[in-house]
Design a protein that fits this description.
heterotrimer, A alpha+beta, B alpha+beta, C alpha+beta, A: alpha+beta, Aldehyde Oxidoreductase, domain 4, 7-stranded mixed beta sheet, 5-stranded mixed beta sheet, 30% helix, C: alpha+beta, Ubiquitin-like (UB roll), DNA polymerase, domain 1, 15% strand
C-alpha cells in the first residue's frame, strides 16, 4: 500500500482550535473555588534570611494562607535533580528557601488568596530581613579559593568535575604541524516560551486524587516526582499538560512552584492556580548554555585533524534543576562534530554561582559543542590558509564508514556530510559569493561568508544515556466503530505530532486521517512515558506507536485470514480493506474491527479487542546533520551586522510531514541566529538580573531576518523502522556558528580571528575601530 | 497592577485641578504604554517615585487631540497618537523629520496607542531604574548602579549622578525643529521652547522635564521650517524594530548649495536630555558641509565622557551625525 | 468629570458598556484591571493571551475601534462605549477568516500562543492595504513576538490570505509547504 499521508504537507489537526482561540492553556482553565498563589522572591543574589514577617500579608482581606521555607521543608521533598556523576555535590534544594537565598528570584514565601491581585499585593507585604552576603557570578572566580561559598555544607563551589579521554591526545598533539587554540564563551540564554509557566492543582473526588494541570513537556515525569515530593501515592496523582505554549526545554523540569501549588491545594482543600509573570520567567525559569570552552586543535598542515583538547567551565547557577548537571556533559559527546577527530580529551568543571540554574534549552549541551568545533575548524583553516569548505571536506567521514564511532564516544548512525555541503554550496552560489566579497573588500566594505557543517544528537535516546530512561510509549486502540485512538507518552507542545502521528497511523491501517485522534499530555489517558524534548517525540514516541500499529495489524490479519479462510501471511492492508494477496477477495476494515469486538468467531488462540501498547527502546541516538551558509554585511560606521543571505541544507532522515519540519527548521534557525547576534542573559557583578524583560533580553522580532533558502537531503536512520532522525533542534544547533563564522570572515582583513557572542554592534564597532587604528 | 483611582477629566482645567488637589501621588495617563506597563504593572517604585494612587486619564479631553496647520506652523495636541502623526499629510509634508521619528518608535501596536505627550514625557529605560530591585537616585535612593555596573547603554554626555539616556525619539525631532511646548498649570498656560523643556539630573534627579506634578503638556507647536529646510532622522538600534535608540540623530538645516546656513542637530540616546550639538552646528556655519562635516562631527569626542562600557557610542554618534547630515544634503 | 474610586479590597466593581465582537455587553470588573484582564477574567474570552503584560510581546493584541492595540496596556475603564474585537470574533459565523485559514494551511501557528495577536494585527493590515509588500507585512507585525516559527510562515500566510481576499485563486507555493528536496 502506497502511503497516502506520510511525506505529505498535511495541514495540522491542531490548528482549528489555535487560530480561533478556542483552546485552553493552563491560565485559561478556571475551577470552582479556585484560589491564587503568588510568590515572594529574593531581591538579593546571596543573603542570609534573618527573619520573615508575614503578619501584614496574612491580615490582608482575601488572604487564605502564607507559607514559608520551614513549613515546606517539613512537609515537602526537595526538588529532583538527575545526574550520576562521581563526586557530584548535591546541595539541599527546598521549594522555598530556608535560611539563605542564593539567586535573585529564589522563592522565599508563597501566599494564597482569593484572587491573583490580592495574592500579589500580599506577597509584597511580606517583610524579609536579609543579611547580604558577597555574591559570585563569574564561574572561574567561583571555583577559586576565597570565593564566597554558596552551599556552606561544601568546601567550595565546584559542583562536580568530570572528564574522559578517547584516543591518545598527547600523541596527536606531538605529531601536529600546527595547533590552534581559542577560548569561546557560550553566553547564558533564556528560553522565553511565549506562554510563561503556570500550574493548577486540585484534589478531585471520588479518587481523592491530586490533579495537576501544568504547562510542562513531561507530564509523566512530573507526576512521579511531584507524588514523591508531596507524599501522594503515584496512583492518586494525575498530571495534565493542556495546550502548552512552547517550552524549548524550559518546561522539561520540576519546579518549586509546581510543588507549592500541589502542597497548598492539598492543605486548603481547594484548587490553587499560579501563573508566572514574564519577570518571574526571566529570573526563575531555567536558563540555557553559559559555558566557557577552551579548545585546542592539533592538525597536519594539509588540514587533517589529529586531536582535540576541550576544557569546559559550566556556570550552572545556584542549584541543580532536573537536568542541570547532565547538560554540560553532552557537550563532550558531540565535540568532534561532523569530523574525524582521532583523539579527544574532555575536561569539565561545573561551578555554582549566584544565578538561576541552567538546564535544557533547545539543543542543550550540543549547540555549545557545535559552536566550538565549527569555530575552531574555521580558525584552523585560516591559519593554514585553507578554504573553510576544503578543511571541512577533508575531515568528513565517508558515507560508507557509518555507523561511525567518534572520539566523543558515540556511534553516528548514518550520514552523507559532503552531499549536504555540496548542495548548500550550489544553492548559495559559493563561488559567486567569494567574488562579490573580493569586490566589496576592494571598496572597503565588510562582507563575510560563514559555514556550519553540523551534526547533532537527537532522538534521545537509549535508556543507558538518560536518567529517566530513554524509551517512549504508544497505545493504539481501534474503537468498535472503527475510529482510532492513539495515546502517546510523548507530550508535544507546538511541534504538531497530533498530525504527524495521525498520518502514520492512517497510512498503516489504510484509513482516513479524520478517523485518527492522537491523545497526549494527560497521565490518565496515556501510557506512562518520558515526554517531548531532545528531538525525540516522533523518532522514539512515533516509533512506539508504529510498533503498536504493527501488533494490531498482525492481529487484524489473523481475523481477516480467519474470515477469508486463509493464513495471515496471505493478508495485506489496503485502503479500507484487508485483501487476500493476489486475489480480489477482501474483507472491509470495518468488518474485521466488528468481528474482533463482537467476538463470535474468534480465530483460534486470538483474544478479542484491538488495542496494543508498545514501549520502544532505541538502540542508539540518531544524528541529523547538514550545512548552513550565512552571509553577513557589516555597517562599517556603526558595526551593525546584517544577515543578508541564509542557506540551510538539513538532513533529518525520512520526513513524515515537510510542513512541520520546515516550521521546526525556520524557528530553530531564528533562535540560533538570535544567540549569535542578540540574546544574552545579563547579571551584574552583584548577581542582579539586568535582562529581566523581553525588551532588555532582546528576543528577535519580525524585522530581523532575511528569507531563508532551505533544502533537504534524506539519509534514513537505521535506528528506527521509519528511518526518522528528528528535527526539533537542528536549526538552533546548526545556525549559530555559521553566523559568527560569517562575521569573523567579514572582519578577517582586520586580522580578527574571533569575537564572542552576542555580536552586538558595539562589539563589532570596537574591532573596526582597533582595526582602523592599527 | 495595584489599585488606583481613575479620573477622566473632560477639560484641561479639570485635569489640572485634579492633579493639584491630589498632589504628587496623581500621575497623568496619556495612552499609558509606559506608565501602565513600565511603572504600574511592573511595580517600579521608590521613595522618590511612588506608585501612583490616582491616574488622571487625559486622553478623555477632546481639546488635546488633533493636528492643526496654520500659517505660522503646525500644532499637535498632546493626545495625538504617534500613528496619527506619521499618517498626517500636514506632518509628512512639512515635518518629515517628526513623522520619521514618530514612525521609528517601538512597534505599530504601541504607536496606535502611544501619544505624542506620552512619548515626550515617558520615563527613561535604564535597566537599573526599571529593575524593581535597584533603589537608584531616580527612585529616591542614593546610588547610581550604572557607574560600577553594566553601562553599555548609558549616557556619554551630561551624565551627573545619574546616567540615563533620554528615551524619546519625538523629543529629539521636536528640539531639532525648534518646537515649543504649551503647558497648562494652576496659573494658566505657558509656552516653553523645547530648548529648555528637558532638565538633566543635576537640576532635578527625580524628573526629566520642567513639568510640575500639577501641570500637563497640552500641545506642541512646530513653526514652519524655513523654505528648503533639510530634515533627516537616523536611529540605530540593536534590533531593527522595537528597541529604543542606541543613538539617534535628528537634523533640520538649510544650505546654500553645499554650504551650511542654519540649523539644528540633536542626538538621542547619548545624554539624560535630548542633546543639541550646538558646537557642531557652529563649526559648520558658513562652511562647505561635504568638506567640513567629518571634522565637525568629531567635536562630539571633545564633549563626550564615556563610561566603562560605552565608548563605542562616541564613535557611533560621530558617524551617525556625519551620515545624517550628508543624507540630508543629498 | 467621571471619577472612579479605587477599591481597597479589590472587591468593589466598576461597570461599563461596550461592544465586544459585534455584540453590546455590560461588564462589571475590579477597576484596576486592564482590558486584557477584563476580557479574560470577567468576560471569559480567553482567546486573548498574555505573554509579558508589559507591552513587549503582542500576544494580547486586540482591536479597539478597529485598531490593533495591546490589551495589557489599555485600562478596562477606558473601554466605555468602545468596539472591541478579539480572536473569538474573527470568524464570520462558522466560516473562518481567510487569515485563520491560511495560518492553518501553512503551519503559521506552532504552539499557537502568539497566534491570536498576529491574526488580529494582520487583519487590520489587510483592511488598510489589500496588497502589502513583504516589508510592509514585517513592519506591521513587528510588535508581535513568535518564538516558534521564525516568522516566515506567518508572512507567507498573510500574503496568501491577502491574495484570496483580493479574489485571486491563490494556493500556497509548492516550495512554501514542501520545502525543496
Amino acid at each position: 500500500m502506497k502511503p497516502r499521508f506520510v511525506g505529505q504537507p498535511i495541514k495540522r489537526k491542531e490548528d482549528p482550535r489555535l487560530v480561533t482561540g478556542a483552546s485552553a492553556y493552563v491560565d485559561d482553565i478556571v475551577l470552582p473555588g479556585m484560589l491564587h498563589m503568588a510568590v515572594a522572591r529574593s531581591i538579593h543574589a546571596h543573603a542570609r534570611i534573618k527573619s520573615i514577617d508575614t503578619s501584614r500579608a496574612s491580615k490582608l482581606p482575601g488572604v487564605r494562607a502564607v507559607v514559608t521555607g520551614e513549613e515546606i521543608a517539613a512537609n515537602c521533598g526537595q526538588l529532583p535533580a538527575a545526574g550520576d556523576i562521581k563526586n557530584m555535590k548535591r546541595p539541599v534544594h527546598h521549594p522555598l528557601a530556608v535560611g539563605k537565598v542564593r539567586f535573585v528570584g529564589e522563592p522565599i514565601a508563597a501566599v494564597l488568596a482569593t484572587d491573583a491581585y490580592v495574592a500579589r499585593d500580599a506577597a509584597e507585604l511580606i517583610q524579609i530581613d536579609y543579611e547580604e552576603l558577597p555574591a559570585v557570578t563569574n564561574p572561574e572566580k567561583a571555583v577559586q579559593q576565597g570565593s564566597p561559598i554558596l552551599h556552606e555544607e561544601f568546601s567550595d563551589n565546584v559542583a562536580y568535575s568530570f572528564g574522559w579521554e578517547n584516543g591518545n591526545t598527547e600523541d596527536g598533539f606531538s605529531k601536529a604541524d600546527t595547533v590552534v587554540k581559542q577560548r569561546f564563551i557560550n553566553q547564558r540564554l533564556a528560553p522565553v516560551s511565549m506562554e510563561p509557566r503556570g500550574v493548577i492543582a486540585a484534589i478531585r473526588m471520588p479518587e481523592n486524587e491530586l490533579v495537576v494541570w501544568s504547562s510542562t513537556q513531561v507530564p509523566h515525569l512530573l507526576k512521579t516526582q511531584l507524588g514523591l515530593m508531596l507524599g501522594i501515592p503515584e496512583n492518586r496523582m494525575r498530571v495534565i499538560a493542556p495546550e502548552v505554549g512552547g517550552g524549548f526545554g524550559s518546561k522539561l523540569n520540576v519546579y518549586a512552584e509546581e510543588a507549592l501549588v500541589g502542597y497548598l491545594a492539598k492543605k486548603v482543600g481547594q484548587p490553587v492556580k499560579w501563573i508566572e509573570s514574564r519577570r518571574e520567567n526571566m529570573a526563575g525559569t531555567i536558563h540555557g548554555r553559559d559555558q566557557i570552552n577552551d579548545v585546542e586543535l592539533a592538525l597536519k598542515k594539509d588540514g587533517t585533524i589529529l586531536a582535540m583538547k576541550l576544557k569546559v567551565i559550566a556556570d550552572i547557577g545556584a542549584y541543580y534543576q532536573l537536568l542541570t548537571a547532565i547538560i554540560p556533559t553532552l557537550t563532550g559527546l558531540l565535540a568532534p562534530g561532523a569530523y574525524r577527530v582521532p583523539a579527544l580529551k574532555f575536561d569539565l568543571v561545573a561551578a555554582f554561582t549566584n544565578k538561576m540554574a541552567t538546564d535544557a534549552y533547545r539543543g542543550a549541551g550540543r549547540p555549545e559543542a557545535t559552536y566550538l568545533i565549527e569555530r575552531i575548524i574555521d580558525i584552523a583553516a585560516r591559519k593554514l590558509g585553507m578554504d573553510p569548505v576544503d578543511i571541512r571536506r577533508k575531515n568528513f567521514p565517508k558515507p560508507a564508514e557509518f555507523p561511525f564511532q567518534t572520539s566523543g564516544g558515540v556511534f553516528y548512525d548514518s550520514a552523507n556530510y559532503e552531499k549536504a555541503l555540496d548542495r548548500a554550496l550550489e544553492v548559495a552560489d559559493y563561488k559567486g559569493l567569494r567574488k562579490k566579497q573580493a569586490e566589496l573588500r576592494k571598496q572597503g566594505k565588510y562582507m563575510g561568508i560563514g559555514f556550519s557543517s553540523y551534526v547533532e544528537i537527537c532522538a534521545m535516546g537509549p535508556s543507558i544515556a538518560m536518567a529517566s530512561g530513554g524509551w517512549e510509549s504508544g497505545t493504539v486502540r481501534i474503537e468498535p466503530t472503527g475510529t482510532v485512538t492513539v495515546s502517546t507518552g510523548a507530550s508535544p507542545h507546538g511541534q504538531g505530532q497530533e498530525t504527524s502521528f495521525a498520518q502514520i497511523a492512517a497510512d498503516e491501517l489504510g484509513i482516513d486521517m479524520e478517523n485518527v485522534t492522537v491523545l497526549h499530555g494527560d497521565t490518565a489517558r496515556t501510557p506512562y512515558g518520558i515526554g517531548t524534548f531532545g528531538s525525540r517525540a516522533t523518532a522514539v514516541g512515533g516509533t512506539a506507536m508504529y510498533l503498536a500499529l504493527q501488533d494490531l495489524k498482525e492481529k487484524m490479519k489473523k481475523f481477516a485470514a480467519h474470515m477469508l479462510e486463509t493464513t495471515p501471511g496471505n493478508i495485506e492492508f489496503e485502503v479500507g480493506k484487508l485483501v487476500m494477496t493476489g486475489t480480489a477477495r477482501s474483507v472491509s476494515f470495518m468488518d474485521v474491527v466488528t468481528s474482533a469486538y463482537v467476538a463470535k468467531k474468534l480465530p483460534p488462540g486470538v483474544e478479542p479487542g484491538l488495542e496494543a501498547t508498545r514501549f520502544f527502546e532505541p538502540s542508539n541516538f540518531t544524528f541529523p546533520f547538514g550545512t548552513h551558509i550565512c552571509v553577513v554585511e557589516i555597517d562599517e560606521e556603526t558595526g551593525e551586522p546584517k544577515v543578508v543571505k541564509y542557506v540551510a541544507v538539513d538532513d533529518c532522515g525520512n520526513v513524515i510531514n515537510p510542513l512541520l519540519v520546515e516550521g521546526q527548521v525556520h524557528g530553530g534557525i531564528v533562535q540560533g541566529i538570535s544567540q549569535a547576534l542578540y540574546e544574552e542573559v545579563v547579571y551584574d557583578e552583584n548577581g542582579q538580573l539586568l535582562s529581566g524583560t523581553l525588551m532588555d533580553y532582546a528576543v528577535p522580532r519580525a524585522h530581523d531576518f532575511p528569507m531563508f533558502e532551505l533544502e533537504r537531503t534524506v539519509t534514513p536512520s537505521p535506528v528506527n523502522p521509519m528511518g526518522i532522525k528528528g528535527a526539533g533542534e537542528a536549526g538552533t544547533i546548526g545556525s549559530t556558528p555559521s553566523v559568527v563564522n560569517a562575521v569573523v570572515d567579514a572582519l578577517a582583513p582586520l586580522g580578527v580571528t574571533h569575537i564572542d557572542m552576542p555580536l552586538r554592534p558595539e562589539k563589532i564597532w570596537k574591532i573596526l575601530k582597533l582595526g582602523r587604528a592599527s | 497592577m495595584k489599585g488606583f483611582e481613575l479620573h477622566e477629566p473632560k477639560t484641561v482645567k479639570e485635569a489640572v485641578d485634579t492633579l493639584t488637589r491630589i498632589g504628587p501621588n496623581a500621575k497623568v495617563l496619556a495612552g499609558g504604554s509606559d506608565l501602565v506597563s513600565g511603572v504600574m504593572k511592573d511595580w517600579v517604585e521608590g521613595s522618590g517615585m511612588p506608585i501612583p494612587t490616582a491616574l488622571v486619564d487625559i486622553t478623555t479631553i477632546p481639546q488635546l487631540k488633533g493636528i492643526r496647520a496654520a500659517a505660522a506652523g503646525i500644532t499637535i495636541g498632546a493626545n495625538t497618537t504617534l500613528t496619527e502623526i506619521f499618517e498626517s499629510k500636514e506632518v509628512t509634508g512639512k515635518l518629515p523629520l517628526l513623522a520619521q521619528a514618530a514612525h521609528s518608535v517601538a512597534s505599530p501596536l504601541i504607536r496606535n496607542y502611544a501619544t505624542l505627550g506620552g512619548n515626550i514625557n515617558q520615563r527613561p529605560r535604564c535597566w537599573f531604574l526599571r529593575g524593581p530591585d535597584f533603589d537608584c537616585y531616580k527612585k529616591g535612593g542614593d546610588f547610581c548602579f550604572s557607574v560600577g555596573g553594566d553601562n553599555r547603554y548609558h549616557a556619554i554626555i551630561g551624565g551627573e549622578l545619574c546616567y540615563i539616556v533620554h528615551p524619546s525619539d519625538t523629543a529629539a525631532a521636536l528640539l531639532a525643529l525648534n518646537a515649543q511646548a504649551k503647558i497648562a498649570g494652576p496659573a494658566g498656560e505657558r509656552m516653553v521652547p523645547f530648548d529648555s523643556y528637558f532638565v538633566g539630573p543635576r537640576e532635578n534627579i527625580l524628573n526629566e522635564n520642567v513639568l510640575k506634578a500639577n501641570e500637563i503638556l497640552v500641545e506642541v507647536f512646530i513653526p514652519n521650517p524655513a523654505a528648503g529646510t533639510k530634515q533627516t532622522w537616523l536611529k540605530l538600534k540593536n534590533r531593527e524594530v522595537y528597541d529604543f535608540a542606541l543613538i539617534s540623530v535628528a537634523a533640520a538645516f538649510t544650505a546654500a548649495g553645499d554650504v551650511w546656513q542654519d540649523g539644528r542637530i540633536v542626538l538621542g540616546g547619548v545624554a539624560p536630555v535630548p542633546y543639541r550639538a550646538t558646537a557642531i552646528e557652529n563649526q559648520l556655519k558658513g562652511k562647505n558641509i561635504k568638506t567640513s562635516i567629518k571634522q565637525a562631527a568629531a567635536i562630539i569626542r571633545t564633549v563626550a565622557r564615556p563610561m566603562s562600557m560605552n565608548a563605542y557610542k562616541v564613535d557611533i554618534a560621530q558617524n551617525l551625525v556625519e551620515r545624517t547630515i550628508l543624507q540630508g544634503l543629498a | 468629570m467621571k471619577t472612579i474610586k479605587k477599591s481597597r479590597t479589590r472587591l468593589e466593581k466598576a461597570h461599563i458598556s461596550l461592544r465586544v465582537n459585534g455584540e453590546s455587553v455590560e461588564v462589571a470588573f475590579a477597576p484596576h484591571k486592564t482590558l486584557l484582564e477584563v476580557l479574560r477574567e470577567d468576560m471569559g474570552l480567553t482567546g486573548t493571551k498574555h505573554g509579558c503584560e508589559l507591552g513587549e510581546c503582542g500576544c494580547c493584541a486586540v482591536l479597539v475601534d478597529g485598531q490593533p492595540v495591546l490589551s495589557c496596556l489599555a485600562l478596562g475603564l477606558a473601554m466605555e462605549g468602545r468596539e472591541v474585537t478579539t480572536v473569538e470574533g474573527m470568524a464570520d459565523g462558522t466560516s473562518l477568516h481567510p487569515l485563520q485559514q491560511t495560518f492553518a494551511e501553512l503551519g503559521a501557528a506552532q504552539c499557537g500562543y502568539c497566534t491570536p495577536g498576529f491574526l488580529l494585527t494582520a487583519k487590520v493590515l489587510l483592511e488598510k492595504d489589500a496588497k502589502p509588500s513583504r516589508q510592509e507585512i514585517k513592519e506591521a507585525l513587528s510588535g508581535n513576538i513568535c518564538r516558534c516559527t521564525g516568522y516566515i510562515k506567518i508572512y507567507e500566510a498573510v500574503e496568501l490570505a491577502a491574495a484570496r481576499m483580493r479574489g485571486e485563486q491563490a494556493e500556497p507555493a509548492e516550495e512554501t509547504i514542501y520545502g525543496r528536496q
